[in-house]
Predict the structure.
Amino acid sequence: MLTIEDWGMIDYHDAWERQRHLQGRIQSGAKDSTLVFCQHPSVITVGKAGSRDNILLPQTEWNKSGIEVVNVNRGGDVTLHNPGQLIGYTLFRLTDFQPDLHWFLREIESCIIETIAEYDLSGERVEGLTGVWLEQQRKICAIGIHCSRWVTAHGFALNVHNDLKEFSYIIPCGIHDKEVTSIHQECKKKSSPSVSLEDVQNICTSRFIAHFL
């Protein structure tokens, strides 16, 4: 079974606390695997493998900009969340599917690749890296998870129509030679219709249900 929840716009700390509570309930068998969708006010997060050296915004500017920096227990390096980015927290009991983290990451990537294909965007993997890219150069979705007792937390951040200028505050995922993009940015290049985050979420939901039910 897979439950879908929508937390709307939520403070990052509040969402992290809710994730921890939900992860514990799934571990105990009190709740099914759950895919949570939400958005966050602008926040920079640093994963277990990350370094604050990859934050370009001086600390004196963090408070001025209203952007908090949070160390988290997911994999990966530095990323940024902001409004218009679709967050998907994948709280899944992998023993109900396949107890293999590499398999799970590839499945998330496949769901995202299939989602953006609905907008005529060809998502790709880059060897040795996690996430979804366009033309091997422009990252459209970051992925980082944490796993405890075969129940995962954290998940993916898909850029839909968020402010990409804020990514100049960081070296995204610690990768110096690649860009960041969004569905809106890519559709604008093609003079395609505007992109609705709600529509993207609905498509993404259908892809996860197809892969995990």
In short: The first helix runs from residue 12 to 28. The chain has five helices and eleven strands.
